[in-house]
Amino acid sequence: MGASRRKLLRNGLIGSFVWVAFCFAYVFATMGIREFLDMPANNFGDFIAGVVAPVVFGWVAAGLLMQARQLEFQSKQLDVQNEQIELQRAELKLQRQELTLQRQEVARLADEAAAQRKAIEANELHARRDVFLAIADLMVKEQNAVVGEMIGWVNRNHFATAWGQFSQGDTDAIMRVAHRELFRHVSRDPSARIGDVRLSENNAVDRFIRNFEFLLNEAEKCDSELRRLFELSSMGTVYAGLCLLTDHPQAFEYRYKMNSLEEVTLGGIRRP
Questions:
Q1: Which of 229, 272, 269 minimizes the C-alpha distance to 253?
Q2: Whole-model pTM above 0.85?
Q3: Which of 115, 144, 159, 192 would give a disulfide with 152, using CB separation of 3.0 to 4.6 Å?
């Protein structure tokens, strides 16, 4: 655009100079310099107007032409800018689509990670439960042996009955007989003994209490429902009775604390 404008300006100056030179050369050739200088003022003005008018018209036309070209150039620039804007708009649309796809991918990966985390947690919980149940099975057997020994020292017949039921598959039999018969006997005779030691002072009682509270704590780590089941079991009732005998605080969270051996003999049922 700059080169075209300079070229038009150069051609206009040359044309103007040639036109003025031609007019004066014509006048001088036809009239002579003296006659031209002696010409009346109105004729001289008409001559100057006749010379200058084509030059002015030419420059006006050149100006309009330059403006037209400039407007055309600006129009092309606007077209180019519009095309660039359209390209930018298309790029932004593609970027938005890519961002949407990325968000969807991130959300999918997050869901997969959450699912994997839940699966891992479930597997860990399942493994912990399996380990706990294996340990609990051994400890429950030990607890049954301890309580069976207590029943045997108090009443051999009750021990034989409980053991017979236990041998036939009733795994709760020893604990059930214990809270029904053992604590009924102790409530009648607070000085009941196992050998030479009072029942309330026997090491087996302390071991039973500590083992049961260990089971409760480990069950809570796996599943609160497991702890609740242990607390509500016959073993939990025997534990409450032994806590009453030794003034040991009952560690129940899902079962009310028993206040008397009578409640224990009734299996934890309170009389109104």
A1: 229
A2: no
A3: 159
